[in-house]
Protein backbone atom coordinates (compact mmCIF):
# COMPACT_ATOMS: atom_id res chain seq x y z
CA UNK A 1 0.00 0.00 0.00
CA UNK A 2 2.75 2.50 0.88
CA UNK A 3 4.44 1.74 -2.43
CA UNK A 4 1.42 3.19 -4.26
CA UNK A 5 2.26 6.66 -2.94
CA UNK A 6 6.05 6.57 -3.28
CA UNK A 7 7.33 8.40 -6.33
CA UNK A 8 7.75 11.71 -8.11
CA UNK A 9 4.97 14.35 -8.03
CA UNK A 10 4.64 17.61 -9.94
CA UNK A 11 2.13 20.44 -9.61
CA UNK A 12 -0.57 20.35 -12.27
CA UNK A 13 -3.47 22.73 -12.89
CA UNK A 14 -6.74 20.85 -13.18
CA UNK A 15 -8.27 23.80 -15.05
CA UNK A 16 -6.39 25.70 -17.76
CA UNK A 17 -5.33 28.89 -16.02
CA UNK A 18 -2.47 30.19 -18.13
CA UNK A 19 0.15 28.37 -16.07
CA UNK A 20 2.33 25.70 -17.64
CA UNK A 21 2.22 22.13 -16.38
CA UNK A 22 4.20 22.02 -13.14
CA UNK A 23 4.19 25.78 -12.57
CA UNK A 24 2.35 27.31 -9.62
CA UNK A 25 3.13 30.54 -7.77
CA UNK A 26 5.79 31.60 -10.25
CA UNK A 27 7.99 28.54 -10.17
CA UNK A 28 8.42 24.83 -10.73
CA UNK A 29 7.62 22.42 -7.90
CA UNK A 30 8.82 18.83 -7.56
CA UNK A 31 8.09 16.46 -4.70
CA UNK A 32 9.86 13.13 -4.29
CA UNK A 33 8.15 10.83 -1.77
CA UNK A 34 10.61 8.15 -0.62
CA UNK A 35 9.82 4.63 0.60
CA UNK A 36 11.82 5.23 3.80
CA UNK A 37 9.28 7.80 5.05
CA UNK A 38 11.18 10.90 3.90
CA UNK A 39 10.50 13.42 1.15
CA UNK A 40 12.46 15.95 -0.88
CA UNK A 41 10.72 19.09 -2.13
CA UNK A 42 12.45 21.24 -4.75
CA UNK A 43 11.12 24.70 -5.61
CA UNK A 44 12.61 26.63 -8.52
CA UNK A 45 11.08 30.12 -8.70
CA UNK A 46 11.06 31.84 -12.06
CA UNK A 47 14.24 33.92 -12.13
CA UNK A 48 15.28 32.96 -8.59
CA UNK A 49 17.35 30.50 -6.62
CA UNK A 50 16.22 26.89 -6.25
CA UNK A 51 15.45 25.73 -2.71
CA UNK A 52 15.41 22.15 -1.46
CA UNK A 53 13.48 21.06 1.63
CA UNK A 54 13.44 17.64 3.27
CA UNK A 55 11.23 16.10 5.90
CA UNK A 56 9.18 13.05 6.78
CA UNK A 57 5.77 11.70 5.80
CA UNK A 58 3.32 9.13 7.14
CA UNK A 59 0.04 7.67 5.94
CA UNK A 60 -2.98 7.78 8.24
CA UNK A 61 -6.76 7.41 8.12
CA UNK A 62 -9.09 10.34 8.73
CA UNK A 63 -12.87 10.79 8.49
CA UNK A 64 -12.27 11.88 4.87
CA UNK A 65 -10.28 8.77 4.04
CA UNK A 66 -6.57 8.13 3.60
CA UNK A 67 -4.20 11.11 3.99
CA UNK A 68 -0.49 11.82 3.89
CA UNK A 69 0.91 13.86 6.76
CA UNK A 70 4.04 15.77 5.74
CA UNK A 71 6.31 17.11 8.49
CA UNK A 72 8.58 19.90 7.32
CA UNK A 73 6.89 20.87 4.04
CA UNK A 74 6.41 24.52 3.07
CA UNK A 75 5.03 25.18 -0.39
CA UNK A 76 6.99 27.91 -2.24
CA UNK A 77 9.16 28.79 0.77
CA UNK A 78 10.04 32.19 -0.71
CA UNK A 79 6.44 33.35 -0.14
CA UNK A 80 6.11 35.41 3.04
CA UNK A 81 3.06 33.42 4.17
CA UNK A 82 4.67 30.02 3.52
CA UNK A 83 8.16 30.38 5.01
CA UNK A 84 7.36 28.38 8.11
CA UNK A 85 7.45 24.71 7.37
CA UNK A 86 5.34 22.44 9.46
CA UNK A 87 2.73 19.74 9.32
CA UNK A 88 0.63 19.54 6.19
CA UNK A 89 -2.11 16.91 6.17
CA UNK A 90 -3.13 16.23 2.56
CA UNK A 91 -6.04 13.95 1.63
CA UNK A 92 -5.26 11.45 -1.11
CA UNK A 93 -7.45 11.61 -4.20
CA UNK A 94 -7.34 8.33 -6.02
CA UNK A 95 -9.62 8.62 -9.05
CA UNK A 96 -10.99 5.58 -10.82
CA UNK A 97 -8.73 6.46 -13.77
CA UNK A 98 -5.63 8.62 -13.87
CA UNK A 99 -2.82 9.24 -11.42
CA UNK A 100 -2.92 9.76 -7.67
CA UNK A 101 -3.57 13.42 -6.79
CA UNK A 102 -2.71 15.36 -3.64
CA UNK A 103 -4.65 18.65 -3.51
CA UNK A 104 -2.69 21.85 -2.96
CA UNK A 105 -5.55 24.25 -3.57
CA UNK A 106 -8.87 22.59 -4.39
CA UNK A 107 -10.58 25.92 -5.07
CA UNK A 108 -8.08 26.87 -7.78
CA UNK A 109 -7.71 23.30 -8.98
CA UNK A 110 -4.00 22.75 -8.19
CA UNK A 111 -2.77 19.29 -7.29
CA UNK A 112 0.38 17.31 -6.86
CA UNK A 113 0.09 14.67 -9.62
CA UNK A 114 2.05 11.44 -9.29
CA UNK A 115 4.15 10.86 -12.40
CA UNK A 116 4.63 7.43 -13.88
CA UNK A 117 7.95 5.85 -12.97
- Give average pLDDT, whole number: 79
Shape descriptor: globular
User: What's the CATH class, please?
Assistant: Mainly Beta
The ordered string of helix (H) and strand (E) elements is: EEEEEEEE
Number of helices: 0
How widely separated are the two ends? 16 Å
Structural class: mainly beta
Number of strands: 8
Notable features of this structure?
117 residues, Lipocalin, 8-stranded antiparallel β-sheet, 50% strand, mainly beta
What does this molecule look like?
- With about 120 residues, the chain is an all-beta fold.
- The chain has one domain: Lipocalin (Beta Barrel), CATH 2.40.128.280.
- Helix content is about 0%, strand content about 50%.
- It has no helices and eight strands.
- It has strands at about 5-15, 25-35, 40-45, 50-60, 65-75, 85-90, 100-105, 110-115.
- An eight-stranded antiparallel beta sheet has the order 6-5-4-3-2-1-8-7, with no helix packed on it.
- A hairpin with a 2-residue loop joins β4 (about 50-60) and β5.
- The radius of gyration is 14 Å and the shape is globular.
- Residues about 15-20 and about 80-85 have low confidence and may be disordered.
Describe the secondary-structure layout.
Blueprint: E1 7-13, E2 27-33, E3 38-45, E4 51-62, E5 65-73, E6 86-91, E7 101-105, E8 110-114
Amino acid sequence: MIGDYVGHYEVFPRITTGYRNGVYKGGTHQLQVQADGTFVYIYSPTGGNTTKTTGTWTLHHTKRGLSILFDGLALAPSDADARKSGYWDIPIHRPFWGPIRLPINDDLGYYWIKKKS
